[in-house]
């Protein structure tokens, strides 16, 4: 215990001043200084005088403890009530029925389109292929692909309106 007291008297005030400069908070500097002194005491067997001076080793430990504390501060606290973590609400019966009817209406409206336009819509929206990929795959200019997709959408929209 005498050795720890001597270590504390020697390095405690210097470490506290160093941490005060880093934290700009007296209480935080005091807490981190005490944490540093405990870490030094626990890791004393790891000190190698051949690798450098004891003070450099001590202040490296202090700096690492400060960095750890700073990182913990910057990390947001886990909030189990955060709406982003809540599961998506389950659709109720009327919503499920509406989704099913909308899906059926879309399938029926797609049947009214020519096969070429159905293929373009499938590639673009269901396979999520880019317009340039579709153009390369079908051997068409990109402008033609874009205009045919726009035309297919217009016909699809009209077919869905007729079904209402």
Helix coverage percent: over 70%
Q: Major sheet, described briefly?
A: none
Structural class: mainly alpha
Strand content: under 5%
H/E element sequence: HHHHHHH
Low-confidence runs of at least 5 consecutive residues = none
Number of helices: 7
What's the domain count?
2
Q: Judging from the principal axes of the Cα atoms, what is the shape?
A: elongated
Average pLDDT works out at 84
Concise synopsis of the structure shown:
The chain has helices spanning 2-23, 26-42, 54-74, 93-111, 115-126, 131-138, 142-163. The protein is mainly alpha-helical.
Describe the structure.
The protein folds into 2 domains: 2-74, Rna Polymerase Sigma Factor, Chain: A, CATH 1.10.1740.10; 109-163, Winged helix-like DNA-binding domain superfamily/Winged helix DNA-binding domain (Arc Repressor Mutant, subunit A, Orthogonal Bundle). 74% of the residues lie in helices and 0% in strands. The chain is mainly alpha-helical. It has helices at 2-23, 26-42, 54-74, 93-111, 115-126, 131-138, 142-163. The protein has 7 helices and no strands.
